[in-house]
Amino acid sequence: MPLLKQGAIVDDPWVYVGDDDDLPNGGPVIVTLKRWREDRDALMARGTQVGIRLTSEQTPGQVEDDLRHFGVVALEFPAFTDGRSYSNARRLRDRFNYPGEVRAVGDILRDQYFQYHRCGFDAIEIKDGETAADWARATSIITTPYQPASDGADNVLSLRQRRAAAGG
Amino acid sequence: MYRYDEFDHALVQDRVAQYRDQVARRISGELSEEQFRPLRLMNGLYLQLHAYMLRVAIPYGTLSSKQLRKLAHIARTYDKGYGHWTTRQNIQFNWPKLDETPDILAELAEVEMHAIQTSGNTIRNVTADAYGGVAADEIEDPRIWAEIIRQWSTLHPEFSFLPRKFKIAVTGAPHDRAAVRFHDIGVIVKRNWDGEIGFEVLVGGGLGRTPMIAKTIRQFLPKQHLLSYLEAILRVYNLIGRRDNKYKARIKIMVHELGIDEVGEMVEDEWERIKTGELELPADEIARIRAYFAPPEYEALPAEDPGFAAKRFEDRACAQWVRSNVNHHKQPGYAIVDLSVKPEGQPPGDVTDAQMDAVADLAEAYSMDELRVTHEQNLVFPYVKQSDLYELWRKLIEQGLATANVGLVSDIIACPGLDYCALANARSIPVAQRISKRFADLDRQHDIGELRMKISGCINACGHHHVGHIGLLGVDRRGEEYYQITLGGAPGEDASVGKIIGPAFSSGDVVDAVEELVNVYVEKRREGERFLDTYRRIGEEPFKTRLYEERFHAAA
After folding, report:
1. Domains of chain A: which residue ranges?
2. Cβ <8 Å between B18 and A141
3. For the domain A3-141, what is the CATH code?
4. DSSP-derived secondary structure letter, B59
5. Using CA atoms, how far apart are residues B13 and A141, in angstroms rounded to an integer?
6. Does the complex come out with an ipTM higher than 0.90?
7. What is the pLDDT of residues A67-91, one digit of tens each?
8. Which residues between 257 and 276 in chain B have a beta carbon less than 8 angstroms from any beta carbon of chain A?
9. Cβ atoms B124, B60 nearer than 8 A
10. Taking the CB of residue B6, how many other CB atoms lie within 10 A of it?
């Protein structure tokens, strides 16, 4: 899967390791919650970065104390109609102040780019064959959204405040 | 009323451009119908039995004459010359062509309207008391808060794929004309002991297959926390609402299964963490929105206009119209006028382009350029001088909008039913038309008094039959249309869910059955009792006995 970050396709150094797979000798790996719980010590001892992949049934709150160890938290969309990972991403950013990569994985649609971005995702696994240009068209959709979210962007509420403060 | 500023305009324009691109991709074949479906649903475009249907949002039911003329123009240009008022204060067009829908949205944007979130598993168009700003019993205009909720919920990035659709209603008065207890969230404007404005928040109401009355989750929420509290409820629901079964996915099921106390704790826990964040409403933003809903410049008038009082005395038909269709206004010398869109024998809620143009002209002349759409599918002129009432009444008669039946038995709520809807088991509109004809005699209707009659063509309950004093539910019995009768439902502050009275009636018998129920009431009522009051006092037995033992022996 191509990885889209900041509008460009980038090399993805992370490797998914299945629950029954052997750990590779080096390099950053992403594991499931189950694997993390079973092999926490071994994963920590490898000396390279670890990431975790959570299903939409799981929540970042289940690994709250371990979040500082993760370089990536990948949140799954089992179907694009399952919106739980939007709320989990927002909690990661706003409640747990998680600073690392939050990656959207699964049934990913470019028409949802705006939602991913605003909820705090900063990396997206896009479909094979899709290009950064395809996704660029989706990014410019809504110039200024109404409500604050997890992207820290200007929103109508904040801009009106600024305008009022400037006496406008 | 609210007017867009540059931000509102820009957002709607962006949305039109985005949708135009999506439709072009669908027509070119780049998007399959399956891929296009969630995108069109974000813009209120449904695929129905015969054609696409476009549902246009009318936030909290408020329209200007200019906006209504635009809706008339759309009906004329892109549809077959009519529209249909919905029970959520919106309007539907039943025959738009797919390739023209972006143009419709562009036309709507010119008059500060859109179709965003009128469908899909999103926060739907927020509704409010249709008498907002003018009701005599009001604490504050609910539209201030409905507009604030509208903006927050519009294209909210986190809540576009909820477990199920989500409806919020606001009332600013203790007398609940917005059915807030049958919404996913109901907001009731209140004052605390210090006189500060805030809200009682209810959650988990709804109709559909499993009707539930909402429960209070917070007795008093200070006003600046409205959005953070709503966001906390939505986040909890988005995360733990059921997604395994479409029919158990509404928040009412979550509240029912977990209990209001547990849901309340989860919401409070979430809210505590976000309430002092960016969503805390700044006082000057509340003031800015409130200013749009400031009372208009009323003339200083006597409480009762003597000229009209005399006319009313002389003209019996006018007096009858006043009794059912004219309401007390908070401003002396003014009145709230209900326009009945349910003349004898016509489909409830349908409106032609010519009627819309005429209503727009009348609203301009008699109601300060503004009107409302009610959840009973009627229209309201909120600012009519009593001295204009007689003239207005005469003009409404010419338009067929002065039927003196608002709140009476022929003021029927009905869903589109099998005539239009792919989900329906039975037709709703023809039954409504037959009931309307059966009770055509207005003197009889006025004698019967308030009677909320509601008809749904299937279990999804779009016709709100659960909250009808008399409700009809279309069921399919071996390929034939039958109607189950419920009694005793009520949508307001005395909310109750109607009870099924017995076996369903055939299409041929159902109107007779309704008439018998009304007869029982007329025989048993005490002075001043409405149908609902009598039913509550005497219970279902007398009604049941009449229907199943005396009248329809064979059917039972």
Report:
1. 3-141
2. yes
3. 3.20.20.70
4. G
5. 10
6. yes
7. 999 999 999 999 999 999 999 999 9
8. 273-274
9. no
10. 11
